[in-house]
Specification:
Elements (H helix, E strand, L loop, with lengths): L9 H7 L10 H11 L12 H7 L4 H15 L3 H36 L3 E5 L2 E5 L9 E5 L7 E13 L1 H4 L5 E2 L18 E2 L4 E13 L5 H11 L6 H30 L4 H15 L4 H18 L8 H7 L22 E3 L2 E3 L12 H10 L4 E2 L5 E2 L2 H12 L4 H7 L2 E5 L7 E8 L2 E8 L1 H5 L5 E3 L2 E3 L1
Length: about 450
Amino acid sequence: MSAAWHTLASEEVLALHATSLAAGLAPDEVERRLTLHGLNAIVAGQRRGPARMLLDQFADFMVLVLVASAIVASFLGEPQDTVAIVVIVVLNAGLGFVQEFRAERAMAALQALAASPARVRRGGVVEIVPTVRLVPGDVVLLEAGNAVPADLRLVDTAQLRVEEAALTGESLPVEKSSAPLADPELPLGDRRNMAYKSTVVTYGRATGVVVATGMNTELGRIATLLRDETASQTPLQRRLARFGQRLAIGVLTLCAIIFAAGMLRGEAPLIMLLTVLSLAVAAIPEALPAVVTVSLALGAAKMVRKHALIRRLPAVETLGSVTYVCTDKTGTLTQNRMEVEAYHVGGGRQREVPTDFMAVGPWPPLLTALALNNDAVRGGDGAPAGDPTEIALFLAAERAGYEPGALAARLPRVAEIPFSSESGRMTTLHRDDQGIFVCTKGAPERVVACCTDQLGDAGVAP
């Protein structure tokens, strides 16, 4: 059970970590705590090296039977059978090794991309530091688009909303605050004064104190459960193993019977030994492992085309055996993304912004409001970051030629009234050559209730 940091007041959390909101930790104290707590990293299970990956391809019982058959065929002086079996074994191992090696490299690359720096206050100075060097007691500054770098107790928030889909499955961003909560048994999704590693800030700003790093975070606990889980065989692997065992027992039994019958008839022992060994080699289905591996590799290739990495080939068969999937939709059946589907302008409904709209009609004010009354931004990688709803409006304005960044520079925001559940709308004030104008967005019933007129192609009308 994790510590109930959400039940403590901000001052208590700061005092327990011997830190301050204004100054943060001293550099020498950071180094001491880094030595004590270790790096802020999720430790994966023991990663297999290339040699281990290759050896694992020969751990299947049927493959071992084929290797034994190749040795026997070589002993019998049958080079064609020996070469054929060796080629099949090498092909089988090569396909499995290449697939798993590529998947491991892709996973390592994705993990490297996921490591973003964090803004912290240390020694009274705001610094950009690698996420792995965060320690308990660090004062972290968050803003829209940031990934939460560790488990934080929020001590100061400004309209903060955090997307926790990766941790709790909740598709909508969660509003956060810094007020302590009374119930120590609250589930993660209800701890509104906590921000957890791997979640993403979609709106607002906050300051938080690191209360857990690395494997002590909630994400780390999940990783521990997954790491400690023992690997189990898939249904196909179990069936192939049983088939191989039964085949081996059957072939050995038949060979023993034939050998005994030959000896009873007075046949030469060497002749009978060569006969039963030839029978054993002929009875082995050499192509079976290769056929299975090729089939699984084709399935893995199809999954890759659907942007899904298969780390181990047998997982393809497991997926194929699934009858029902019980899962939260966010990030699985959906991508937690929204798009503008239609516009209601001038009393009509349109799916796209017309390319020839009039400069004095309703479209310019609408598109300007979409771009300006918006806190979504372009991140360092060029991808939009922020609340999914605002990203949809941001992209709609961009597609219509209203670039939000350029508009914000030309028509700067001078004040705002943030969205709240009570008002149901967000209002921003901007300055232009003629003075101040207002942009408002929100729930239709709340916004329409504030209006007295509407703007259409013919101008302003009641």
